[in-house]
Amino acid sequence: MAEQHRRPTLMDVAAAAGVSRALVSIVMRGAPGASESTRQKVLEAAEQLGYRPDSRARLLRSSRTKLLGVSFSISHPFHAELVDAAYGGAESRGYDIALSAVTSGRSEASGVQSLLDLGCEALILISPTLKEDELTGYARRVPVVSLLRDDVGQAVDSVSSDDHAGIRLAVEHLAALGHQKIVHVDGGTAVSAAPRRAEFNREMERRGLEPRVIPGGPYEEDGLRACELLRAECPTAVVAFNDRTALGVMEGLRAAGLRVPADVSVVGYDDSQFARLSYVQLTSVSQDAPLLAEAAVDVAVGRLEGEQPPSHVIRTPHLVVRTTTAPAATNP
Amino acid sequence: MAEQHRRPTLMDVAAAAGVSRALVSIVMRGAPGASESTRQKVLEAAEQLGYRPDSRARLLRSSRTKLLGVSFSISHPFHAELVDAAYGGAESRGYDIALSAVTSGRSEASGVQSLLDLGCEALILISPTLKEDELTGYARRVPVVSLLRDDVGQAVDSVSSDDHAGIRLAVEHLAALGHQKIVHVDGGTAVSAAPRRAEFNREMERRGLEPRVIPGGPYEEDGLRACELLRAECPTAVVAFNDRTALGVMEGLRAAGLRVPADVSVVGYDDSQFARLSYVQLTSVSQDAPLLAEAAVDVAVGRLEGEQPPSHVIRTPHLVVRTTTAPAATNP
DNA sequence: TGGGGTGACTAGAACGATCTAGATTCCCCA
DNA sequence: TGGGGAATCTAGATCGTTCTAGTCACCCCA
Question: In sequence order, what DSSP letters do the residues of A42-72 get, joined into one string?
Fold first, then answer.
């Protein structure tokens, strides 16, 4: 139906309230310089007309747009949790968020470009796959915060979780349960797969255990596929690249007649929705999405408002122990 | 670092190319009225300066924003597929998409409001939970298309999948396999739970079978919980509200020592990523996300460009048979 | 030669807000 | 009485575009 009722402008409100445009502007953004009585009068008139400020015009004029651009991968549930938390963080700081999804058919670069066109003052890129020099290029225009990835060069801020510590927690937990034959199903070429793999090797060697790594990937299918190789290793415990990988691994183990955790313990990474499902109850390394997302918002806002924040924030993850890990069988 | 290099404007390009602002504008949007030679010259200058039109200003001036607002629920993977497809559809029609996620902490109404503030010309709401009169209210301002929900009143267009047909397909498939004790684990209060439930009852009765419905919900946990009641019914087949519900049901059956599909067949709904996982291989009713999303974009664009499109598009889903359904056991 | 037409280009007014600088009112106190 | 100063309000420029209504140069043909 959409009757093309032109939406009311400052002018309309001003006319209705019998004051000037500028004064209405002052009232609308809560700036000082209006008496309480006219403030009421103006607000009433605005309410009456159903006035809403046109953010395009507003943002055009004041170089401040109060818009944060967030790009995320739509197929990744953990990103969803981060986005969720980012909304909250931004709101409490008086910013709004523009979203851009990276999908199979839509590259990160084009998403970032449209965020910029929309007038975002800063970018928060979740697990960006752009190359370092591309990121640096964007950082010349606006503050850029990389979330969940830290090898992004000096020009780009980053907020990430300490992958080394996370993997150490996982290995430590399993070792404390008496496991010795621990295998890592890695993330293949995914972001942060490399550091996790490296730290796994390091930590295992530090403990005098033989590090075994099997190529995997970030999805269930990858974990499942890895099980073919995994079985040859006869491990008593598996550290998976992330929760989805872990789910795939568990499925593969189950198909092979192995019980979790009686025969094999499994640790995931992300502590995502999946890990928390009542029938999964996956022991997992939690990166604490809300804290990470809020930290990213803080860094971005900090840059914008002039304080020079630390360039690279690294948070320490913690382990959430559920039911997929148990002491190693006494007779291996 | 973000050196605050003011971004170049039409003026800058005009100065660099030695022409007027207006001419640059003409060239940039490919309008007629510029000679080939100056066109080249201008494009070169723009390229040189790294000029990108400021969409805020552009959109402020021309009432057309070419922006479609899409709201979706971030926790719902099927929505992700729709968003993905919507991006493609919009792009091919020369529109851009602004996203708004509905999360636990962010209501649909506030999301819609910010889409409107951003200047979206039309809204595509995926499974909106707003009340009919609220929707109608928005529809007075811009064209609104409800995706996946069709009881939205006359003022709002809708694109949905024929839930009745979908449920019929599922029941028909199971009946053809010889199943008689078929139970529906419903979606509780979720959008489209009611029509699916009703059609299940109708279709079962039409076939002279006794319709059994067990309260469920849209998530794995709901399906799992439903299994407690389900076992009392001893069904040979289950039609679940959606794929996630089906996953929960299958998990519950497995925990009870029942095999799928040998003991119980299970049909899901949505044909989502989950259904396609190699170790799930869930038989599911496919609503065909790309088609639905593109239809929604078509309707929205149609409204905007003046053609009066059909108000309510309903697409017929189809069944994707995988490995979770099998003939009913010969000895029940 | 000169009038009409066309193609290439430009000046200046929008769009709807913000912001600066100045005007007006009112109060208080010397 | 009158002037300083705070509080309140307004006019007008401005942001970076698009768009309308021109201007200007050039060509063609009567």
Answer: HHHHHHHHT----HHHHHHHSS---EEEEEE
